[in-house]
Amino acid sequence: MTAQHTLLQQHRECDELFALAETTARQQDWEGAESAFAAFRDDMERHFVLEEECLFPAFEQATGMRHGPTMVMRNEHAQMRELLHDMSRALDARTADVYLGHGGTLLILMQQHNMKEENILYPMCQQHVTGLDALISDWEARHEH
Q1: Long-range Cβ contacts of 7-10 (<8 Å, 24+ apart)
Q2: Per CATH, which fold does 3-142 belong to?
Q3: The model scores a pTM over 0.85
């Protein structure tokens, strides 16, 4: 499996878990929402860590660009982590409207973020990082759930 395929698959899996968490929160199925949200948050964090500890440093080393697209992506990861924290607090308080409001903001940010990664950053990584597929698959093997 190529690195791009792995990363795109992770985006799709996170999208599915996000939708499940949103649906269960909307129905005020708090146990289901907590479970789905925990799985979503964990997968998001795992994906962020893969990018921040493996993909981004490899790209920066290969290109010398440390203040370019990877810096933007790291900043967006920080914004998404803040929203995930806010969503977690809303879930703990059983406030569906607040949870869904933060979720709507997160959804827009995720969609924009993923488009940039999928259409710009990942192809640039594939072009510039020698051995990218092996790098990502090795990282994945070391960090399996």
Answers
A1: 7/47, 7/50, 7/51, 7/55, 7/117, 7/118, 7/122, 7/136, 8/118, 8/122, 10/43, 10/46, 10/47, 10/50
A2: Four Helix Bundle (Hemerythrin (Met), subunit A) (1.20.120)
A3: yes
